[in-house]
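Q: Could you fold this chain for me?
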Amino acid sequence: MRPVTEHDIRASFVNCSKGEAKRLDLPRDLADLPWADLDFLGWRDPGAPERAYLVAESDGERDGPLVGIALRVTSGAPRNFTTRSMCSLCLTTHTSGGVALMTARRTGEAGRQGNSVGQYLCIDLACSLYTRGKREAAGGGVIDESLTLEEKIARIRAKLDAFLAKVVG
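A: Sure. Below is the predicted structure, expressed as structure tokens.
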């Protein structure tokens, strides 16, 4: 992903109002992020743990328009340490609540009617780093696959594009 500015991020949101986008808390370390290793920028709001945000380049293309979505993190019952969950984007397995259902209000009329779509995602939204082996899941890990790193990156981008299309479509 190319480095983006605060203005770019706030202008990219498609499923919340301009006022909501203006008020949301951005990651404090934007300049220090490993942009070359990111397929999307994802973060949790430290002041509102049930909120998360995701910003990606449209159709996975560098220099393409950005699409930002506001997510609601579904809180479930506390997880047992022996239970494992898998992120639907990066296929990383986590224990003890490392994956959560995150829902996004759809855009347009569907969103005004209260429709949303959801995905099970890594709770820290570090899918890109797990895929590239830059971060390891506590008590979990990436499943052993015969795919190359390039194929895994293509898969995460395709899954991300499909999720964004459901939100925007």
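A (continued): The first helix runs from residue 6 to 12.
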